[in-house]
Amino acid sequence: MGELVDFFVRSRNFILFVLLEVLCFYFIINTSNYWSVTYFNTSNRYAAQVLAWSNAANEYTRLRQVNADLAMENQRLNTRLTQLLQSKPASPAEYQADSAFADRFKYTVAKVIDNTTQFANNYITIDKGTDDGIHPGMGVISPTGIVGKIKVCNRHFSVVTSILHSEFLVSSKLTKANEIGSAKWDGIDPHLMKLDAIASYKTVNKGDSAVTSEFNSTFPPGILVGRVRTVGVQSNQTFHDITLDLATNFSNLSFVYIVENRLQAEQEQLEKQVEKEK
Description:
It is built from 6 helices and 12 strands. It is of the alpha+beta class. The chain is elongated and about 105 Å long.
């Protein structure tokens, strides 16, 4: 306490000077319209700037929650869109799927907590596991396209085999050419993928979309795989040499959607039974 008193005693002249300056400033503002208006405008401008900085900081701290909310909304929209597309395909016009088939795909949102792109065989770790109903074999997609397939799970985490994997194949269809082939990563550029088995007599143009086909039980049909970047002809002259720009940007992957085909086990069991009887 004595030190505080000593400080005020030593600084009494400076403190008096500051108080007199504040008092003068107060009188100037209150006795002059010009300075009063100037002070009012200046203080409002700086207050508005400080408020803008404060709002920007608050919005930045809420980005994580905003992203999570958007991911949940996308999950709901994906479920609804897939249900509508499966219940009434584009052709034939008279076809109507039953409700169980149309509603067979279920989506679960998950957060990416680890991801590699630099290896020949890449994997992704997500924060959902068996406690959330996740099991190996489920498909994984992003808000923009295909991601991979669940490989292993424990109670709280799952590891996904990325499509950036030397053994990952996905049945894909060129929407304009209506031709089905196999998309596979060549192990070089994590932004590109090859599309094989597209007949050379089919017309393929740069920018054409490649989506998941109807001939797989893991992914809903119509999920974007990529868009045609380059088109050539293979040496055997039978198939196109097609390179796709991947729809999913794996370098900034944050949220993904796990796709459960609730009729997959039933379909595969029946197909295995037919194979045994051959």
